[in-house]
Amino acid sequence: MTAALIDGNLISKKLRGEIRERAAKIPSAKGKPPGLAVILVGGNPASQVYVSSKVKACGEVGFHSVLERYPASLSEADLLKQIDTLNNDPTINGILVQLPLPDHIDSKKVLEAIAPEKDVDGFHISNAGALMVGSPEFIPCTPYGCIKMLESIQYPLKGAQAVVVGASNIVGKPMAMLLLMAGATITVCNSKTRNLSRYTKDADIVVVATGRPKMVTGDMIKPGAVVIDVGINRLPDGKLCGDVDFESVKQVASHITPVPGGVGPMTITMLLMNTLEAAER
Ligand code: GUN
């Protein structure tokens, strides 16, 4: 078997067209386009690429955006002050603080300082809690994108056996909640899981978000399973690869997401969707 690709660029293109159309209707109703503020502290190279892509995508769908770059020496107090200013800025509907933050800044405190109604990342404790009880307000962008990819192949999630590899607050935990809400039976594995393939081999859907290049291989996957690869890793030769060993897994799976061109563009698309919804509300 050679797996069919779930093309994140293609699905994004369609969704971004819809977002652009809905956004165009907002200025006449409220006098301004949807606005996103992105804050980057420090010079993490991957973060710089991500925030530039986010701001560029805003321009492509007619959103207003601002990118605020600060040196790694920015104090926590000054960052909190800036978030407060953005919370009170009527031209800004969504606020995103790119993670990771420098060690001297308490990320939890920073995320809690963002007004929940502008928390388009869905990381505020009240948005995380809303998802946990099955009434999501803002769904974290990466798992939201993964669910849209499963919807694109009309995968019947009810009763499906799903394994999420990785238990982060950003991806693994919200992913598990979304799959559970959709009626799947979920297993969440983490870096301490013994004999990981015992779980993945049983799964109809495997979502991998570990940050470890090519760690899930074809022999760990059930024939015909759907494999969603959240990882973006840079190899020593400069090439990008996922957390899934694409070459071996594509021989076994029915569907697979590529890296690049899979979950990455979907994460940005769902950020646009959340910002649009914040503006519409
Ligand atoms: N760092 C890695 N992924 C993300 C994300 O989705 N949002 C933010 N704010 N930071 C990240």
Number of domains: 2
> Helix content range of the residues, please?
40-55%
Q: Mind telling me the CATH class of the largest domain?
A: Alpha Beta
Enter the CATH topology name of the largest domain.
Answer: Rossmann fold
Biggest sheet, strands in spatial order?
A: 1-11-8-7-5-6
CATH architectural type of the largest domain: 3-Layer(aba) Sandwich
What would the principal axes of the Cα set say about the shape?
globular
Looking at CATH, the homologous superfamily of the largest domain is NAD(P)-binding Rossmann-like Domain
The overall pLDDT average reads 96
User: Can you summarize the main beta sheet?
Assistant: 6 strands, parallel
Q: Please state the structural category.
A: alpha/beta
Order of helices and strands: EHEHEHEHHHEHEHEEEEHEH
Beta-strand proportion: 15-25%
Number of helices: 10
**Beta-strand segment tally:** 11
Low-confidence blocks of residues: none
Outline the structure in words:
The chain has helices at residues 8-30, 45-60, 76-87, 107-113, 125-132, 141-152, 172-181, 196-200, 246-249, 263-280, and strands spanning 4-5, 35-41, 64-70, 94-97, 161-165, 185-189, 205-208, 226-229, 233-234, 240-241, 255-256. The model has no long low-confidence stretch (mean pLDDT 96). α2 packs across α10 (263-280). The longest helix is centred in the N-terminal third of the chain and has 23 residues, at 8-30. Helices cover 41% and strands 16% of the residues. The protein contains ten helices and eleven strands. The protein has two domains: 31-116, Leucine Dehydrogenase, chain A, domain 1 (Rossmann fold, 3-Layer(aba) Sandwich); 139-264, 3-Layer(aba) Sandwich (Rossmann fold). The strands form three sheets. Strands 1-11-8-7-5-6 form a six-stranded parallel beta sheet. A three-stranded parallel beta sheet has the order 3-2-4, sandwiched between helices. β5 (161-165), α7 (172-181) and β6 (185-189) form a beta-alpha-beta unit. It is an alpha/beta fold. Residues 96-99, 121, 141-142, 170, 267 line the site of guanine (GUN).
